């Protein structure tokens, strides 16, 4: 029997990572993420899953971000009865992220129900916190480099960098080798260890989030210091939307180094994300995945004031500057950061710093392309604060770094499929691989099935 791979997500978009492997009489799903960004993409989350969840034998997860895990509660709710396999770090972080996602979905549905602002008479969440807890209970954890036999499909987790627990997947099925990058980290990341070099494989599925660009070679610390010093010296507020898991830690490291060097004013730093606060404890338990010393860990977590309650968060909106607020979400799609944006985004003396990829259709992408009116809580909100985009803080490998990582392989892969990128980025990387390396590379179609 020939193994088959079907691309059910992360095609023509950076989100919704879902790949189905059919081999050895088994169905194994690699990643099970939410579609995010444009409404047309988000509506895919409400469509029936492409295959009956009851027929899937196991799920294997690359890392904990919602675009790779966020549909798991819905999959379990719809009848998936198998195990979810991941690294220890991914399971622990998913135990924070998935229940929080379910809670926010419940809150959003309740808000629209109260306001009558939905086209549905009784809007319902995609899943609830209880559904998410049920999915978390299905996780089975594995160490890096410990092979897992899923009844004929053999999976090995190898380090990917990016965030805590993130793994590349080496999969053997029906005598063929598949390799999934998940989200590939950076060799020069200040916090995470670099991704493991690429080993020989028959088929490579590689992310292409930054496939059409290279990160700035400027020191992100210099950019951060310049904005923070100017704004905070004059009493302003610096608002930094950040993914609660991964980006928040990288920012704290940068800010603690700048503070220790005397390059930013001694103003309060608030980490306003309960998930980020809890994730900090998990990061501290897994220092072996990071490249910094223990004293730097202590210094980066001594820097901020942790904001835990809703009342504490509301008080920040009354406090005024100077101060720095780090708050989720990183693409301004929800959470406490929106209330801070309502409070401080209209003042030209303040600044907003974007620090990662902004998917199309998100408020972060709207600001990134220069628009200065955001739709929030049913209102059009003018943004007069400075907006800065420091892409060099991204935890994703860029075009150059992906190509350099590929060239660590002892031999070219039989085929390369580029996913997890918007169309221009994926196709630009395809050209670089095909023309520069001479490898067989292409961008798959949604729902396309290939034989391995």
- Strands of the widest sheet, in order across it, are 6-5-4-3-2-1-22
- Please state the second-level CATH architecture of the largest domain: 4-Layer Sandwich
Give the C-level CATH assignment of the largest domain: Alpha Beta
Number of domains: 2
Q: Which terms summarize this structure?
A:
7-stranded mixed beta sheet; about 450 residues; hydrolase; Metallo-beta-lactamase, Chain A; Rossmann fold; alpha/beta; hydrolase activity; single chain; Metallo-beta-lactamase family protein; RNA endonuclease activity; Metallo-B-lactamas; 2 domains
Task: Briefly say what this structure is.
Helix content is 33%, strand content 21%. The chain has helices at residues 39-42, 66-69, 72-77, 88-115, 129-136, 220-233, 247-260, 274-285, 294-302, 310-319, 336-344, 363-368, 399-406, 423-437, and strands spanning 4-7, 19-23, 26-30, 58-60, 83-87, 139-142, 148-149, 153-159, 167-173, 176-180, 203-207, 237-241, 269-272, 305-306, 323-327, 351-354, 373-376, 379-382, 386-389, 415-419, 441-442, 449-451. The strands form four sheets. Strands 6-5-4-3-2-1-22 form a seven-stranded mixed beta sheet.
Write the layout of secondary structure elements.
Blueprint (H helix, E strand, L loop, with lengths): L3 E4 L11 E5 L2 E5 L8 H4 L15 E3 L5 H4 L2 H6 L5 E5 H28 L13 H8 L2 E4 L5 E2 L3 E7 L7 E7 L2 E5 L22 E5 L12 H14 L3 E5 L5 H14 L8 E4 L1 H12 L8 H9 L2 E2 L3 H10 L3 E5 L8 H9 L6 E4 L8 H6 L4 E4 L2 E4 L3 E4 L9 H8 L8 E5 L3 H15 L3 E2 L6 E3 L1
Parallel strand pairs: 3-4, 4-5, 5-6, 10-11, 11-20, 12-15, 12-16, 13-14, 13-15, 16-19, 20-21
Antiparallel strand pairs: 1-2, 1-22, 2-3, 7-8, 8-9, 9-10, 17-18
């Amino acid at each position: 029997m020939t193994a088959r791979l079907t691309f059910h997500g992360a095609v023509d978009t950076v989100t919704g990572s879902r790949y189905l492997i059919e081999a050895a009489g088994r169905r194994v799903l690699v990643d099970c993420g939410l579609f995010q960004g444009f409404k047309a993409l988000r509506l895919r989350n409400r469509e029936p899953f492409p295959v009956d969840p009851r027929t899937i034998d196991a799920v294997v997860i690359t890392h904990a971000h919602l675009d790779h895990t966020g549909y798991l509660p819905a999959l379990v709710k719809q009848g998936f009865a198998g195990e979810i396999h991941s690294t220890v770090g991914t399971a622990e972080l998913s135990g924070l992220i998935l229940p929080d996602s379910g809670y926010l979905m419940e809150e959003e549905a309740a808000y629209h129900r109260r306001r009558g602002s939905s086209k549905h008479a009784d809007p319902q969440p995609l899943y609830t916190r209880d559904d998410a807890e049920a999915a978390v209970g299905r996780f089975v954890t594995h160490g890096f480099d410990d092979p897992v036999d899923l009844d004929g499909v053999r999976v090995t987790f190898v380090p990917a960098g990016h965030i805590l627990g993130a793994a590349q997947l080496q999969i053997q099925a029906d005598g063929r080798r598949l390799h999934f990058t998940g989200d590939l980290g950076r060799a020069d990341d200040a916090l995470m260890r670099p991704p493991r070099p690429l080993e020989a494989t028959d088929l490579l599925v590689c992310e292409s989030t930054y496939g059409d660009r290279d990160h700035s070679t400027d020191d992100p610390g210099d950019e951060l210091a310049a904005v923070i010093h100017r704004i905070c010296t004059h009493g302003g507020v610096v608002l930094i939307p950040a993914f609660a898991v991964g980006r928040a830690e990288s920012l704290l490291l940068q800010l603690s180094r700048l503070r220790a060097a005397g390059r930013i004013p001694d103003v309060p730093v608030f980490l306003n994300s309960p998930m980020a606060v809890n994730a900090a404890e998990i990061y501290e338990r897994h220092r072996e995945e990071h490249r910094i010393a223990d004293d730097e860990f202590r210094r980066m977590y001594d820097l901020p004031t942790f904001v835990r309650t809703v009342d504490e968060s509301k008080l920040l909106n009354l406090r005024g500057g100077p101060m720095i607020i780090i708050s989720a979400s990183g693409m301004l799609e929800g959470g406490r950061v929106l209330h801070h944006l309502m409070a401080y985004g209209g003042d030209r003396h303040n600044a907003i710093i974007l620090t990662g990829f902004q998917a199309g259709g998100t408020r972060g992408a709207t600001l990134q392309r220069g628009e200065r009116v955001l739709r929030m809580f049913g209102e059009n909100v003018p943004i007069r604060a400075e907006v800065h985009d420091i892409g060099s803080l991204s935890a994703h490998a860029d075009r150059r770094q992906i190509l350099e990582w590929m060239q660590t392989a002892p031999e070219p892969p039989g085929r390369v499929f580029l996913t997890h990128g918007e169309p221009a980025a994926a196709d630009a990387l395809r050209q670089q691989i095909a023309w520069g390396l001479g490898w067989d590379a292409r961008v798959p179609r949604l729902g396309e099935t290939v034989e391995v």
